[in-house]
Write a structure and sequence with these properties.
Length: 261
């Protein structure tokens, strides 16, 4: 029996873990509901702890300007204390995991953003072993205020180029997470001197910082350059602004001052 128990702690004949999400579609500031199902193996086992969290796969810039990806767990909740899991027994633990307001969006208008990997992680601590389950993806949809800004870009004729999550901080914002998202757009032909626009949201429970960075095309005798802007939008009082007109005015002013277009 002692030999079986040792094998169980290392994964042979031991408990299996399955996380079931009640709803995969969430928004920042919301809650993802689910339950962890722990199925006992061929022997009883001492469960020392159970945690669920949220994990993102982000880009990290190395010291030599190289880039690599890193999994960052940016929230974590403990689900109860230690207990003894009997052989063959099923132990079900429900949970509600809050989605931080800064969580990047992974879905826009029902379409997945390529390269966005965010999901629920499950960690079961068994005596002498830790079993980390697979990542259960979630779909993070934009808040209404975020959607208003995104819709404004589409209304102006911008097209999605891509998105990524980068480790680091955006200066002058309310950012608390150790990473941020950039959503990239191709400009329409009317902004002929512009290469792309990068958009970032940094939200909390009342407002969000909207960060825009314009990238100018390189010319025959000139190098490309960036222009940066950050402004605040209330999560509940954004309806009174024509965001397409606001963005067009700023783009036009910056472009004309720099003779971009």
């Amino acid at each position: 029996m002692g030999f079986k128990r040792l094998l169980a702690s290392l994964g042979a004949g031991g408990a299996s873990v399955e996380t079931v999400l009640g709803e995969e579609n969430v928004v920042p500031g919301g809650v993802v509901q689910g339950e962890v199902r722990i199925q006992g193996g061929s022997v009883s086992q001492s469960i020392e702890g159970l945690n669920v969290g949220l994990q993102a796969r982000v880009e990290v810039e190395g010291h030599d300007d190289s880039e690599y990806h890193q999994n960052i767990e940016f929230t974590k909740v403990s689900l109860g204390g230690a207990f003894e899991l009997q052989a063959g027994a099923l132990h079900v633990v429900p949970f509600g995991l809050e989605i931080p307001w800064e969580t990047p969006v992974t879905m826009i208008d029902g379409q997945s953003l390529r390269g966005m990997h965010i999901g629920v992680t499950t960690e079961l601590a068994i005596a002498r072993a830790v079993d980390s389950g697979d990542l259960d993806p979630i779909n993070v949809h934009p808040l209404p205020a975020q959607k208003a800004i995104l819709d404004a870009f589409i209304q102006l004729g911008f097209r999605f180029k891509g998105a990524d999550m980068e480790r680091g901080h955006i200066r002058g914002t309310r950012q608390r997470l150790p990473f941020y998202q950039e959503i990239e757009f191709y400009p329409p032909s009317q902004y002929r001197g512009l290469n792309e626009v990068e958009l970032s949201f940094v939200a909390d429970e009342s407002a969000m910082d909207v960060v825009l960075e314009m990238d100018k095309k390189s010319g025959l005798f000139t190098e490309g350059s960036d222009s940066y802007r950050c402004f605040q939008v209330g999560l509940h009082d954004f309806h009174g602004t024509d965001w397409a007109a606001y963005l067009h005015q700023w783009l036009s002013e910056v472009g004309s001052k720099r003779s971009w277009f």
